[in-house]
Amino acid sequence: MKTVHEVSKLAGISVRTLHYYDSIGLLSPTETTEAGYRLYDEEALGRLQCILLFRELEFPLKDIKEILDSPNFERNKALEQQIELLKLKKEHIENLIDLATGIRMIGVKKLMSFEAFDTRKIDEYAKQAKESYGTTPAYKEFEEKSKNRSKEQEQKLGIDMMNIFADFGKLLEHAPEDAVVQEKVAELRAFLTEHYYNCTPEILSSLGEMYAGGGSMTDNINAYAGEGTAEFTAQAIREYCAHCTGGQHSLE
Amino acid sequence: MKTVHEVSKLAGISVRTLHYYDSIGLLSPTETTEAGYRLYDEEALGRLQCILLFRELEFPLKDIKEILDSPNFERNKALEQQIELLKLKKEHIENLIDLATGIRMIGVKKLMSFEAFDTRKIDEYAKQAKESYGTTPAYKEFEEKSKNRSKEQEQKLGIDMMNIFADFGKLLEHAPEDAVVQEKVAELRAFLTEHYYNCTPEILSSLGEMYAGGGSMTDNINAYAGEGTAEFTAQAIREYCAHCTGGQHSLE
DNA sequence: TCTTGACTCCTACGTTACGTCATACTTTAT
DNA sequence: ATAAAGTATGACGTAACGTAGGAGTCAAGA
Predict the structure, then answer these.
(1) Helix axes B216-225, B201-211, angle to 10 degrees
(2) What does the alpha-carbon distance between residue A107 and residue A99 come to, in Å, rounded to a whole number?
(3) Which residue of chain B has the CA closest to A162?
(4) Do the Cβ atoms of B165 and B224 come closer than 8 Å?
(5) Which residues of A touch B83 (CB under 8 A)?
(6) Cβ of B162 and A223 within 8 Å?
(7) Distance between CA A103 and CA A111 in Å, rounded?
(8) d(CA A220, CA A230)
(9) Exposure on the CB side of residue B133, measured as CA atoms within 13 A
């Protein structure tokens, strides 16, 4: 004979749950002491096991009660039904995942008019920047990296990129030279270096001016991350480059 | 400006839902008439669209409220989170399906000690029955049918079979010669004919005596479908055969 | 023996997203 | 003018407990 506390620890449920199951007649204690304490024996524990099993399978407690008080074949029928129901649920969730993924993609595409971050564009900027300083082995690295990526991976990178801008948008109240902002710039640079090419201060600077250049890219960044984010980011990048390489800007 | 009724029809939701959304501040009407009637304009309808979209994705209304009142990037982050959450749910449900399927199998196997319905056993009975009347082309049909089935298909047939016995178990209060019971016998015969071999009255009769023969098969049937079902089914089959071919029994 | 702390009881409200009355008022159609 | 249809508010019900409160119970130490 175990008390509610002991049973609750054994079964990994709360005492309240035992009270509740008693109150709805799903699991009555084997006996009660004169003081009204509930006591459960092994058989009751077995029934509780069954209850928890069916509960795990998302059966409503009402149904569990019926199932446990009915013959074997009813249980199997119930199980089959539940399997069907779970399969339907799974299908539904799969549809939801597709829907949500689609919406996110629409949102991302619409807000940043995806071409703006299309590899080829960045490619061009990289080329231009590289040309002014000569072609290096790093450019080949970039080509390899970008050619091996799937459409899906590109999209994920675009999203990550937008999230970095979203972070800048949250820092608008800070000064561009603030440590937190400068760290974000460093993060942006690291991100570009990892996924595109070795992002030198010169390239970074060039990109910064592109962000704030007033084109659709500027608009998209501001629409997504908050008005003024593009300009703020550009300013932060200028600060970063000034302290990074001695103050020269690659744009003139 | 549309009234609650019009909006509800347009959006496919209830008037109560509009009341509720107003009460929790999720969607306030554009204005209210002097009599207190709610009126919604196009913008409100747009917001409602968004609400229903996020609701479809199983966002809690509280979260939807926050999301709609926050900038774009928050929405995308929320979407990503929700996608993760939905993926977890999907995984969970897949586990549940496996669990339920496993339990059902255990139940079926344990209750009917699956060998009893193993094709080979029925095979033997079929052979014996056939031998007394000579080998016919139907036997080859049976061999082909049973050899081409997968383990899974066999199990499904076993379950279907048990469900037929469960049906007999529900008819215990009827007389074996009752029309409903006799129809069940016909169903059993059709089932065997479809999945195993052309089930003549002789074979059917033989199987009936096997069910009630007192072995493990009898016990399993009774345990699963209710005490006395095996004997009841056998009696019903005798009745069926008596009216079917003029009264002779194939067993002596 | 008294007290303390751990344990138990029951009552009752909070949770989510509405459905379902019940009652009373307004608008529209005849 | 009157009936039908629409609207508003308020309150209770749902599933499966969580949480809080107040009070009684039990075993053990001082």
Answers:
(1) 80
(2) 12
(3) B73
(4) yes
(5) 97, 100-101, 104
(6) no
(7) 12
(8) 9
(9) 15
The DSSP output letter for B173 is T
- The torsion of the CA quartet A146, A151, A157, A163, rounded to 10 degrees, works out to 160
Please check whether residue B183 is in contact with residue B243, taking contact to mean a CB–CB distance below 8 angstroms. no
The distance of B106 to chain A (nearest Cα, Å) reads 10
Amino acid identity at A81: Q
Residues 103-132 of A with CB under 8 A from B: 103-104, 107-108, 111
What is the gyration radius of the CA atoms in chain B, in angstroms?
31
Q: How many CB atoms lie within 10 A of CB B97?
A: 19
Model confidence at A165: pLDDT above 60: yes
Q: How far is the CA of B171 from the CAs of B168, B181, B183, in angstroms?
A: 5, 7, 11
Residue positions counted in chain B: 252
Nearest to A224 by CA among A92, A118, A85, A104: A104
Paired strand residues for A40: A2
Backbone angles phi, psi at B39, to 5 degrees: -130, 135
- The backbone torsions φ and ψ at residue B2, rounded to the nearest 5 degrees and listed phi first, read -115, 150
The CA–C1' separation of A229 and C21, in angstroms, is 54
DSSP, collapsed to helix, strand or coil, labels residue B31 as strand
Type of residue found at A3? T
Phi and psi torsions of B200, nearest 5°? -70, 165
Strands B38-39 and B31-32: antiparallel
First to last CA, chain A: 86
Where along chain A do its domains lie? Answer: 1-52, 149-252
Give which of A70, A192, A86 is closest to A142, Cα–Cα: A192
* A1-52 placed in CATH 1.10.1660.10: yes
Question: Which of residues B207 and A132 earns the better pLDDT score?
Answer: B207
* pLDDT one-digit tens code per residue, A173-219: 999 999 999 999 999 999 988 887 778 888 888 888 888 888 778 88
What 3-state DSSP class applies to A163? helix
Residue spans of beta strands (DSSP E) within B14-145: 31-32, 38-39
C-alpha B143/C-alpha B138 separation (Å) is: 9
Q: What are B40's strand-pairing partners?
A: B2
State whether residue B55 sits within 8 Å of chain A by CB: no
Under 8 Å between Cβ of A172 and A178: no
Touching check for B85 and chain A: CB below 8 Å?
A: no
Q: Cβ B93–A89 below 8 Å, yes or no?
A: yes
B2 vs A127 pLDDT, higher one: B2
CATH number of this structure's domain B149-252: 1.10.490.50
Residue A232's nearest CA partner among A169, A180, A184, A188 is A169
Q: What does the pLDDT look like over B78-107, one tens digit per residue?
A: 888 999 999 999 999 999 998 888 888 776
Q: Do B162 and A76 touch, CB atoms closer than 8 A?
A: yes
| DSSP track, B111-152 | HHTGGGG-HHHHHHHHHHHHHHH---HHHHHHHHHHHT--HH
